[in-house]
Amino acid sequence: MSRLPDTVLDDCRLDPAAPFAQDPARDFGLDRKSAQLALPELRAWLNDQQRRLWANAQDALLLVLQGPDCAGKDGVIRRVLNAIDPQGLRLHSFKQPDAGERRHDFLWRYRRRLPAPGLLGVFNRSYYEGLASDLFDGLISAAELPARLQRLLALEAGLPAQRLHPLKCYLQISRDEQQARLLQRLQRPDKRWKLRPSDLLAYREYAQRQQRWGELLTASHSQAAPWYVIPAEHRWLRDWLLASLLAREFERLQLEWPQRPPPFTEAELLGAD
């Protein structure tokens, strides 16, 4: 299994004092060809581990994907998770809450979609939107943020008791790279459909939004639930990093196939004819 070494993965771990200080275009001296060779083997290994997770039905993993528009959240799902048995995968993409969801606590729609034991859950955007996008979209006031943050931190503090292990990743791209990717979407019909009027506003407010996200990542970074800031301007590296981080989470679980006694013997099976 060809995951990236811990030194590379740990370099992506959030620095609370400077969340976005590192270059989102850095490549660690790695190259695309090596990534293309490593990723198929890594995806196959992840599928095997997810099947063991499912068979044991004790722990669950939650991959949290955040990042600016066009950072590659959808791309990670397509390119990293495409070999995993969909029966053991629970994927949810969260958009602006609708009127029905807003009648509940902001965490309600996320709580009900946390993965059950044995499952790998993926949140394409997550409960962190309730402290960032909800503010920029005018759904809440700044005065509501401290209370929301405390409820969010309480939610994450309760995950270990459920044997639910979060892997929180923020995909980092520069404003120039975001502009280039938005321009590509404008020019290609197969990507243009993804554009929303809010994408232009978010691009114009890139600096303010990054500042807010930096504050939020710093406030919610912990030993038990750390953030990883992934340099995402090289798609091949982004995918290799995400697959490697997920592989390391599986390694920590030390999953084996369950050693349960079979419900019947070979003799019973053969004698049933």
UniProtKB/TrEMBL annotation:
<protein>
    <submittedName>
        <fullName>Polyphosphate kinase 2, PPK2 family</fullName>
    </submittedName>
</protein>
<dbReference type="GO" id="GO:0016301">
    <property type="term" value="F:kinase activity"/>
</dbReference>
<keyword id="KW-0418">Kinase</keyword>
<dbReference type="Pfam" id="PF03976">
    <property type="entry name" value="PPK2"/>
</dbReference>
<dbReference type="InterPro" id="IPR022488">
    <property type="entry name" value="PPK2-related"/>
</dbReference>
<keyword id="KW-0808">Transferase</keyword>
<dbReference type="InterPro" id="IPR027417">
    <property type="entry name" value="P-loop_NTPase"/>
</dbReference>
<feature type="domain" description="Polyphosphate kinase-2-related">
    <location>
        <begin position="31"/>
        <end position="246"/>
    </location>
</feature>
